């Protein structure tokens, strides 16, 4: 599902969906998407990143090699998220290759800017990275290190093997407010500095975390309580925040998008979708 911003900065949607892309893989399907200023869509899908033009009639591969997963600089292995900066550079979380790749505008060769391609617990390593979030100036980014149950921060000009900074998640802690169980999605608040919102796939909840602290506050769902009513989530993945701090969560286990108004822990279902496809809900 695609959510658009209204002129007041709030996300709005129509109630009728339009299928604009369908994954080749009927099992796992697509993951992260990014939409740039002219409505061009970038989609992380299996072994490549697709670029879908605004007219939705032409789709091309802009990162990775079609039908060829691998660790080479021109390959990806189950990419999870994608971001495009104002210069057209493409950034991808490369899940099974344990790295974040940068493809400079129109280049098919990726440069590793986080992780070193080998899974591990060091600050220079990643273990199955999922989603990431960039600050408003593209100076740095936060990446969810799913396999290590943590979030690391890297400069956008980082290089392979460089150390990240641990900003969220504490290993071997029994405190649910300091440790994670399968973090997945991440979003930066557009109005609060260094406030992270992180979906916890294994805990069925969303936690709000301030960078440089080591505890968070649950803001949606109930930790370790899966469910389908308006106060519960089941295996949440993607997340977006608008300027009024309304939270939009891809509630994967319940096949729906939930909106939590600022300060509320009662969700409103704003969209459902069939499996393995992306739908566009036009602004009104």
Automatic annotation (TrEMBL):
<dbReference type="InterPro" id="IPR001258">
    <property type="entry name" value="NHL_repeat"/>
</dbReference>
<feature type="repeat" description="NHL">
    <location>
        <begin position="117"/>
        <end position="157"/>
    </location>
</feature>
<keyword id="KW-0677">Repeat</keyword>
<dbReference type="GO" id="GO:0043161">
    <property type="term" value="P:proteasome-mediated ubiquitin-dependent protein catabolic process"/>
</dbReference>
<feature type="repeat" description="NHL">
    <location>
        <begin position="68"/>
        <end position="106"/>
    </location>
</feature>
<dbReference type="Pfam" id="PF01436">
    <property type="entry name" value="NHL"/>
</dbReference>
<dbReference type="InterPro" id="IPR050952">
    <property type="entry name" value="TRIM-NHL_E3_ligases"/>
</dbReference>
<dbReference type="GO" id="GO:0008270">
    <property type="term" value="F:zinc ion binding"/>
</dbReference>
<protein>
    <recommendedName>
        <fullName>NHL repeat containing protein</fullName>
    </recommendedName>
</protein>
<dbReference type="GO" id="GO:0061630">
    <property type="term" value="F:ubiquitin protein ligase activity"/>
</dbReference>
<feature type="repeat" description="NHL">
    <location>
        <begin position="233"/>
        <end position="263"/>
    </location>
</feature>
<dbReference type="InterPro" id="IPR011042">
    <property type="entry name" value="6-blade_b-propeller_TolB-like"/>
</dbReference>
<dbReference type="GO" id="GO:0000209">
    <property type="term" value="P:protein polyubiquitination"/>
</dbReference>
């Amino acid at each position: 599902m695609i959510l658009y911003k209204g002129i007041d900065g709030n996300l709005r949607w129509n109630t009728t969906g339009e299928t604009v892309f369908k994954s080749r893989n009927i099992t796992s399907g697509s993951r992260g998407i990014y939409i740039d200023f002219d409505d061009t869509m970038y989609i992380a899908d299996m072994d490549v990143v697709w670029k879908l033009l605004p007219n939705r009639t032409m789709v091309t591969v802009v990162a990775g090699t079609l039908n060829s997963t691998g660790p080479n600089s021109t390959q990806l292995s189950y990419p999870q998220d994608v971001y495009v900066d104002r210069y057209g550079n493409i950034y991808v979380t490369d899940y099974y290759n344990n790295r974040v790749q940068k493809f400079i505008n129109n280049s098919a060769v990726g440069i590793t800017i986080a992780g070193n391609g080998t899974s591990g617990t060091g600050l220079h390593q990643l273990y199955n990275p999922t989603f990431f979030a960039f600050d408003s100036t593209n100076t740095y980014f936060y990446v969810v290190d799913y396999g290590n149950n943590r979030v690391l921060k890297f400069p956008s000009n980082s290089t392979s093997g460089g150390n990240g900074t641990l900003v969220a998640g504490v290993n071997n802690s029994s405190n649910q407010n300091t440790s994670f169980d399968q973090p997945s999605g991440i979003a930066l608040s557009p109005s609060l500095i260094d406030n992270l919102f992180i979906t916890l796939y294994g805990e069925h909840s969303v936690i709000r975390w301030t960078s440089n602290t080591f505890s968070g506050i649950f803001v949606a769902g109930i930790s370790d309580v899966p469910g389908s009513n308006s106060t519960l989530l089941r295996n949440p993945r993607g997340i977006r925040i608008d300027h009024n701090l309304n939270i939009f969560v891809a509630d994967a286990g319940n096949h729906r998008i939930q909106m939590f108004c600022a300060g509320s822990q009662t969700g409103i279902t704003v969209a459902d979708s069939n499996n393995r496809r992306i739908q566009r809900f036009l602004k009104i």
